[in-house]
Hints:
The chain has about 160 residues and is an alpha+beta fold. It has a domain at about 30-135. About 55% of the residues lie in helices and about 20% in strands. It is built from four helices and five strands. Strands 4-3-2-1-5 form a five-stranded antiparallel beta sheet. The relative contact order is 0.09.
Amino acid sequence: MSKQSKAKRDQRKKQQPRRPFLRLDAQQQVQNHAVLVNEEGQVVAAIGLQGRQWLLSIGGQTMGNADNPVPMLAMLKHLANVQEKEGRKVALEYSEQLQQLIDATAAAEGKSADDYLAGLVAEFEGVEGEEAAAVADGGDAADETGDTEAAADADAGDKPQA
């Protein structure tokens, strides 16, 4: 090797364009497919696709992910209904790709897309109605449950904890 080989190699490295570092955890961009917007034009909630995973974002925070976005869309429709009942104007817009997915899922169930989505929204309203009924009836039921839990805690206190 010549005495100048290191100097030549270093010079060649300096002349080459810099390569960007690839991050190992580089995230793919999220493509919005459904957006719930309030009357001021602010995004309240959204459903997006990142790679193969559907993400639900509410208030700027990612709340969950799933392989199927249809239940998340039903949740957004339910949220829009609740907002409108409270007197707030909101608009839910979703993409053609999401609409095609809803159509395919509804066709597999033998329903129209609107009926299928309305059924899913009704499930959310049913759950909310059950919770409200439990709160209304909760005065007596909570006392009974509390007594049972207190007895269970007392029994557990006698036993060593792991």
